[in-house]
Every structure is written in C-alpha cells, then in structure tokens.
Amino acid sequence: MEAAFLTAGWACRRVPGQESVVEADFEAHHARVPLHIQAFDGPGIVSVVARLSFPIAGAALAPAMEALMRMNLQLNIGNFELDPDSGAVCFRVAGVFPAGALDASVLASLVRTAVVETDRATPYLAELNREPGQGVAALLARADLRPGEWVPDGG
Fold first, then answer.
1. CB of 96 within 8 A of CB of 44?
2. Angle between helices 61-73 and 104-130 (to 10 degrees)
3. Which of 44, 102, 122, 155 has the most beta carbons within 10 angstroms of its beta carbon?
C-alpha cells in the first residue's frame, strides 16, 4: 500500500503495531479528509475509509441520516455510514485483489473516490449541523454547495 501511495505522489503513515494499515490526510475542496486504509491478506481485501472532519450534532442526526441515504442512492461504488452514538460519518469503499497482487492504480482510484465523496458531502452535512430543520431534498439540490474539480494532493 505504501508503494501505491508513493507512486501516486501521496504521503501516508503506517499505524504503529498494525502491519497492514496506513493512514493519510488529503486537503480537498471543502475540508481536510482523513483516510484509513487496511489490507486483509487472507481474502485479499483492501478497505479505504474516509472520515468527515466533524461529528453530526444531536438534532441533525435524523436529517443527516436521510441526506446520507439519499447520497448513497446516487453512488455506484462505496457507501456513507453514520454512527448514531458518536455522530461520526465515514465513506467506505473496498476492493478485492488476487493474493499478493495489489494494483496501485485501482487502490489510487479507491482513495480518490473516498476523498471526493467525503468532500462532496461535507458542506451539506455542515449545513444540517447548523440548521437541522431545513428540508433535506431542497438542501441536496443546492448547486452552490457542490465542489469544483479536485486534484488529490496528499499531505
């Protein structure tokens, strides 16, 4: 995984005591997006999890869940999750690779997808935290909250 990050020109760091786990942070259009990438050698799965940079507050939990479910309906790969206890939001995407054959370009695509989707959701969820009573469908239709094109720059 580290070699794939180096090939893409991104920085990452190993998680101490966990051989198959790296983390990275990306400066995206709206926010810094932290990533956790873990390889499961037996089944050949690599899981990429991006986290929203802030938790969802109590009153915003229900509308945020609705917003994330509506966003999930539009996705072809990966999904959003919300932990109702902590308010943490993440985007999870995974790939399955033949044993010992991690494809750096596929991993880079999974990372880009996780960062872009998390960044895309950030302004909508921030608005719901600020004003939980607004209509979710109308909020998601707001073009002014859509990010422009993002070029990944790991940091």
1. yes
2. 140
3. 122
